[in-house]
Write a structure and sequence with these properties.
With 226 residues, the protein is an alpha/beta fold. It has a single domain, classed as 3-Layer(aba) Sandwich (Rossmann fold). It has 7 helices and 7 strands; from the N terminus they run αβαβαβαβαβαβαβ. Strand 2, helix 3 and strand 3 form a beta-alpha-beta unit. The relative contact order is 0.17.
Length: 226
């Protein structure tokens, strides 16, 4: 798999993979369920209406909502944080059946850096990309770690089909300004001003709820691949 990132992009985007010690059930999910759900190629999406990718799915509630609302769509869900992976798998796999329970046939998980996946996918593979409340890396010296980055835009553009939609939501003022400037200056994507309330058809997330409860105002963009 090609992991040669563009110049200016760090080899590691995320902060950490594991928080507190995993419980036995979580260990079983990662050892027995995750390998069965892991993305290997696009063969699983054969016959699907569209193929979507969510980058950094957090607790997985957004991914599960997409699955429920779009049963004919193939979804690749990417998350490096082990507790996030376990949160999603806990909702999909009954306890005691980690090694045997069937998983959603049109869902695959990518437990590594999503940029590696984007580099490895065939060109024009994806119909939609979701980046919901990513780590803003608010300090200026960490800006290179932001998923939205001038050097990453051609990588995203390559993986998306012409006219594909890229949804981005953020509650962080620094990241909001960064998204507007970075994507607004690019000829690879076109988009209107962001919505200030969650648009219809956008599933809620726990991060959005926390942001609103704390008095922060999320913004919601929909960019279209040129």
């Amino acid at each position: 798999m090609n992991t040669e990132f563009p110049t200016g992009i760090p080899q590691r985007l995320y902060g950490r993979r594991r928080g507190h010690k995993l419980r036995p059930r979580q260990e079983r999910l990662l050892e027995q369920a995750l390998p069965r759900a892991r993305f290997t190629d696009l063969a699983f999406a054969a016959g699907a209406r569209e193929t979507w990718l969510e980058v950094g799915f957090g607790g997985g509630e957004h991914t599960r909502a997409l699955l429920a609302a779009h049963p004919g769509t193939a979804i690749i869900a990417s998350e490096v944080y082990e507790h996030g992976l376990c949160s999603l798998l806990t909702e999909l796999v009954p306890e005691g059946a980690e090694a045997t329970a069937p998983l959603p046939p049109l869902l695959r998980l990518w437990p590594d850096d999503a940029r590696e996946l984007l580099l490895a996918l065939p060109p024009k593979s994806l119909d939609r990309l979701f980046l919901m409340f990513p780590d803003p890396w608010p300090k200026a010296r960490h800006a290179k770690r932001r998923f939205v980055h001038p050097e990453m835009l051609p990588v995203v553009h390559r993986a998306l089909k012409p006219g594909a939609i890229w949804r981005i939501a953020s509650d962080d003022p620094t990241y909001q300004e960064w998204v507007a400037e970075t994507l607004g200056a690019s000829a690879l994507f076109a988009g209107a001003a962001p919505a200030v309330t969650r648009p219809e058809g956008w599933p809620p997330t726990r991060y959005e709820a926390k942001a609103i409860a704390a008095g922060r105002r999320p913004l919601y963009w929909e960019w279209r691949r040129a």
